[in-house]
């Protein structure tokens, strides 16, 4: 455990100990309650020396600045920190129950002969949050694990962690490199993706959970992607992302794909859209036909770098299902990166108006209903923006201790 103490001298500041006590209250501390690795934070006062301070207990190293809430004391006092102390705790006393709990969060001790097969890279605990994306309801939507990393990890290690989590995607949040708020990398159990919808929406929810901020810009493999976020309830956030504008083309293996899906035809041309991942759209006549799709996954596995998206109209919304052995996904609960291209595809063929929100429901057949909302401004001659929105809810927090 690390103990951090920061002191501000109040001589020369308009604030006093009493005014700070009145203004820096419990609601200010609450902003810090979800900071990765922070066990406790307390405001402290030294009346004899006219100082105001903060004491923080960390389970590991202090997170990078981009994961920290605003420093209200710094803003109010208007002066830099006069003294900062840092201690490593060598021993401590705690109740048996608490000590046992904390031991479960610590990485396992190295084996006696670990030097014989030491890892290529140093290990340290990594905090993560699990978010169910495109839903308000825990255990619905599409889950994603969001890891908070102070220092970039080797790609091979991130890939192994993604395999360990065994979710459709895992995201690593790191300090920014190119003018964004954070740099992110997205991994499926088998490969890295430059962009993906539900993982990034879930990441925005996780960041809003630890940082009081209403707008984020992510550095992704497809460039800078902005997110507007609005907290609606504890752990529940509504997110709108500005997606990359996709390219599209006819899919040259349409007949083989239809055969792999067990379908005779598609109501619209079979076309491939790419905005990072590649999605190929097949349109069913109705929801009943969509629900009856039983793909041959071995045949689908022959198609590299693509997901098969099956669409169908349903009253005031559209339903979809996604199958992608290429991305190690048997069936996906919510494919956020496909939501914008779906709206473009339907608008291009006159089935929905340009510039009006489209409600897309996915995951019904696997009992993980997910609600996505897409809005495309422009026309086929020139698309101005692609926005995809939805809710996300925090369902778990954890620490990977290897």
Please outline the major beta sheet: 8 strands, mixed, barrel
Overall number of domains: 3
What is the helix fraction of residues, given as a range?
Answer: 10-25%
State the CATH class of the largest domain. Answer: Alpha Beta
**Overall 3D form:** elongated
Report the strand count: 21
End-to-end C-alpha gap? 17 Å
CATH superfamily of the largest domain: Diaminopimelate Epimerase, Chain A, domain 1
CATH topology of the largest domain, by name, is Diaminopimelate Epimerase, Chain A, domain 1
Mean of residue pLDDT? 86
Number of helices: 10
Structural class: alpha+beta
Low-confidence stretches: 94-122
InterPro entries: Phenazine_PhzF-like
Family: Belongs to the PhzF family.
Pfam family, one: PhzC-PhzF
GO molecular function, one term: isomerase activity
Structure description:
There is one protein chain. The chain is an alpha+beta fold and 402 residues long. It folds into 3 domains: 2-88, Alpha-Beta Plaits (2-Layer Sandwich); 103-108 and 119-228 and 395-400, Diaminopimelate Epimerase, Chain A, domain 1; 247-390, Roll (Diaminopimelate Epimerase, Chain A, domain 1). It contains 10 helices and 21 strands. It has helices at residues 17-23, 26-30, 72-77, 96-105, 155-165, 197-210, 254-261, 287-291, 297-300, 336-348, and strands at 2-9, 38-46, 51-58, 83-88, 126-133, 142-148, 170-174, 182-187, 192-193, 215-220, 223-233, 236-243, 247-250, 271-274, 278-283, 307-314, 317-324, 329-332, 358-362, 370-379, 382-400. The strands form 2 sheets. Strands 5-6-7-8-10-11-12-21 form an 8-stranded mixed beta barrel. Strands 2-3-1-4 form a 4-stranded antiparallel β-sheet. β14 and β15 (278-283) form a beta hairpin. The longest helix has 14 residues, at 197-210.
């Amino acid at each position: 455990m690390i103990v951090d103490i920061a002191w501000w001298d109040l001589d020369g500041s308009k604030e006093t100990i009493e005014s700070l006590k009145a203004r820096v209250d419990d609601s200010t501390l609450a902003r810090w309650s979800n900071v990765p690795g922070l066990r406790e934070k307390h405001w402290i006062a030294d009346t004899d020396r006219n100082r105001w301070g903060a004491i923080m207990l960390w389970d590991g190293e202090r997170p990078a600045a981009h994961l920290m809430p605003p420093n209200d004391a710094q803003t109010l006092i208007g002066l830099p920190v006069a003294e900062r102390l840092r201690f490593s705790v060598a021993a401590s006393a705690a109740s048996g129950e608490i000590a046992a709990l904390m031991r479960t969060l610590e990485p396992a001790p190295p084996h006696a002969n670990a030097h014989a097969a030491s890892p290529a890279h140093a290990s340290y605990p990594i905090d993560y949050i699990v978010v169910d994306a495109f839903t308000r309801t825990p255990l619905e939507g599409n889950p994603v694990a969001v890891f908070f990393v102070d220092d970039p990890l080797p790609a091979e290690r991130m890939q192994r962690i993604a395999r360990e989590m065994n979710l459709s995607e895992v995201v690593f949040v790191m300090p920014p490199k190119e003018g964004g708020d954070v740099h992110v990398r997205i991994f499926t159990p088998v490969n890295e993706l430059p962009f993906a919808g539900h993982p990034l929406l879930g990441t925005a929810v996780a960041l809003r959970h630890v940082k009081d901020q209403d707008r984020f810009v992510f550095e992704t493999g497809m460039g800078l992607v902005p997110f507007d976020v609005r907290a609606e309830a504890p752990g529940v956030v509504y997110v709108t992302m500005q997606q990359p504008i996709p390219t599209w083309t006819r899919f040259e293996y349409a007949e083989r794909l239809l055969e792999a899906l067990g379908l005779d035809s598609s109501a619209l041309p079979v076309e491939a859209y790419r905005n990072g991942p590649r999605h190929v759209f097949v349109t069913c006549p109705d929801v009943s036909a969509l629900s009856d799709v039983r793909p041959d996954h071995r045949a689908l596995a022959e198609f590299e770098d693509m997901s098969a998206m099956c669409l169908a109209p349903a009253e005031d919304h559209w339903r979809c299902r996604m199958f992608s052995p290429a991305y190690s996904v048997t069936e996906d609960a919510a494919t956020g990166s496909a939501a914008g291209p779906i709206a473009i595809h339907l608008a291009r063929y006159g089935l929905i108006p340009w510039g009006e929100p489209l409600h897309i429901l996915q995951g019904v057949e696997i009992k993980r209903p997910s609600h996505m909302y897409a809005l495309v401004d422009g026309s086929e001659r020139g698309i101005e923006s692609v926005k995809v929105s939805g809710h996300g809810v925090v369902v778990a927090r954890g620490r990977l201790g290897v």
